[in-house]
Design goal:
Blueprint: H1 5-8, H2 14-33, H3 43-52, H4 59-66, H5 70-82, E1 86-91, E2 94-102, H6 104-124, H7 130-151
Antiparallel strand pairs: 1-2
Helix pairs in contact: 4-5
Length: 152
């Protein structure tokens, strides 16, 4: 969906914009799910690790921040724990609860996977001028804020 001179100057309808956003999300999602050498993380577990990078948390808090069902997060955490990428520990505030945290290997895998994802998207933006990049960042940020405000 590369813009052309013909499409750059005409106004887009909300339906056209939504269709373009959906197409973009699907395209990026497909690109992010492709495996490359050295990337061991599934897209869903990447998302869980990304949220744990800020520090340990309970599974219920992790489910809330990832906007995933608690049972789904629990399953991902079990898989990640078996792979040695996260570890469970007792919650110091409540001895009955557990907190999940990244292991050193989990941090390495997260950094590797994040670097790969950035490289893939950076290659897609080669040739864009600074003003277009700034516009894209501003508009995507606005879209995410609006989407997240409606999800609450």
């Amino acid at each position: 969906m590369q813009p052309t001179e013909e499409t750059e100057d005409r106004e887009a309808s909300p339906t056209q914009v939504v269709d373009s956003v959906l197409h973009t999300a699907i395209t990026i999602g497909r690109l992010m799910r492709q495996r490359v050498a050295g990337d061991q993380l599934e897209p869903a577990t990447y998302w869980v690790l990304k949220h744990l990078a800020a520090g340990s948390m309970r599974i219920t808090a992790l489910a809330s921040t990832t906007q995933l069902d608690t049972s789904t997060v629990s399953r991902h955490v079990t898989q990640l724990e078996q792979a040695g990428l996260v570890e469970r520990g007792q919650d110091p505030d409540d001895g009955r609860a557990q907190r999940v945290d990244l292991t050193d290997e989990g941090r390495v895998q997260l950094e590797t996977s994040t670097r790969r994802r950035r490289e893939v998207l950076t290659r897609s933006l080669e040739g864009w001028d600074a003003a277009d990049l700034a516009d894209l960042e501003r508009l995507l940020g606005r879209l995410v804020v609006d989407i997240e405000s409606q999800a609450r």
